[in-house]
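thought: user wants a sequence for this fold. calling inverse folding tool.
action: design(structure=
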C-alpha cells in the first residue's frame, strides 16, 4: 500500500488535528474519508499494558482524566472523554486503543505508529510496547501498510531484530534535543523513512538520506512557505496537522514555481 501513495506524501499528524480532537477515531476517519493516504498516531502503555493511542504521558490535556497514562488501567482510560476539550461537538469521544484503530481504518490507509519514549522499557518484555505493536500489525495483516517510528533508538533496534515475518517498516524521528546521530540509527535499523523536525532540515540532509534509499517526511508543517521550501529540497512528503487543506493546496497551487 505504501508504494501506491502519490507524491508528495501528505501525512495527517495525530489524524486531522486542525479540525478534530487528536488521536481519535473521528479525526482518523475524517482524514481518510477526505482522501488522505497516510495518518500518524502515538501509542503508549496503560498500567495493565494495553496499547493506548495518546500523545502525552498524562491524561490531563486531551481528556477529562488526570494523571499518567502508565498509572491508569485501560478500563478507566477507555471511559474518558477525549473530545470535549477540543469542541463540545465531540463530547464523549473515547480514547482508542491500537486494535480499534487497525480494525477501523487499517485497510484504508497507511498508518504511522509512533512509539512514545516513555513506553520503552529498559529491559525487553514479552508484553512490551514493541512486541505488542508488532503483534497487532501482524494480526491485522498490515506489514505493508504500517510504519513504526520512535525518538527512542532502543525501540527501533528491538523491532529491527525481529524475524522478517513480523518486522515492520521503521522510521527514525529526530529533533533539536535528539541525543544521537539520526543517520547512524537510520543505517543500523535499515529504516524505511526519516521523520526530522522540518526546522532543522537542509537539502544536503535530504540528499544524504535519499542516497541511503530512505524517504524523508519532516514534521510538523502547516505553513505554505515551509511546504514550498521543503519541497524544493526534495522531501518525499510532509507531516501536517491539516492534511486536507495541504492536499488541496498542493493540487491547486504552483507550489514549486
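)
observation: tool returned 257 residues.
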Amino acid at each position: 500500500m505504501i508504494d501506491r501513495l502519490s507524491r508528495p506524501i501528505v501525512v495527517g499528524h495525530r489524524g486531522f488535528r486542525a479540525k478534530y480532537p487528536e488521536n481519535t477515531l473521528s479525526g482518523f476517519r475524517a482524514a481518510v474519508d477526505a482522501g488522505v493516504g497516510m495518518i500518524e498516531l502515538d501509542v503508549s502503555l496503560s498500567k495493565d499494558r494495553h496499547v493506548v493511542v495518546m500523545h502525552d504521558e498524562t491524561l490531563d490535556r486531551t481528556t477529562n482524566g488526570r494523571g499518567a497514562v502508565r498509572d491508569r488501567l485501560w478500563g478507566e482510560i477507555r471511559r474518558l472523554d477525549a473530545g470535549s476539550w477540543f469542541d463540545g461537538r465531540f463530547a464523549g469521544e473515547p480514547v482508542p486503543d491500537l486494535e480499534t484503530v487497525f480494525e477501523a481504518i487499517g485497510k484504508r490507509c497507511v498508518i504511522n505508529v509512533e512509539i512514545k519514549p516513555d513506553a520503552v522499557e529498559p529491559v525487553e518484555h514479552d508484553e512490551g510496547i514493541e512486541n505488542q505493536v508488532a503483534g497487532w500489525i501482524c494480526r491485522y495483516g498490515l506489514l505493508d501498510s504500517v510504519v513504526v517510528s520512535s525518538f527512542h533508538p532502543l525501540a527501533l533496534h528491538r523491532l529491527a531484530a525481529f524475524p522478517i515475518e513480523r518486522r515492520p517498516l521503521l522510521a527514525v524521528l529526530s529533533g533539536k534535543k535528539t541525543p544521537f546521530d539520526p543517520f547512524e540509527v537510520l543505517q543500523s535499523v535499515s529504516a524505511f523513512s526519516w521523520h526530522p523536525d522540518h526546522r532543522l532540515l537542509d537539502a544536503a540532509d535530504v540528499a544524504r538520506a535519499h542516497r541511503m534509499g530512505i524517504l524523508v517526511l519532516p514534521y510538523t508543517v502547516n505553513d505554505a512557505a515551509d511546504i514550498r521550501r521543503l519541497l524544493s529540497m526534495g522531501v518525499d512528503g510532509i507531516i501536517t496537522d491539516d492534511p486536507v487543506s495541504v492536499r488541496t493546496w498542493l493540487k491547486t497551487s504552483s507550489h514549486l514555481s
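thought: summarizing for user.
answer: Here is the designed sequence. Residues 44 and 119 are 5 Å apart (CA to CA).
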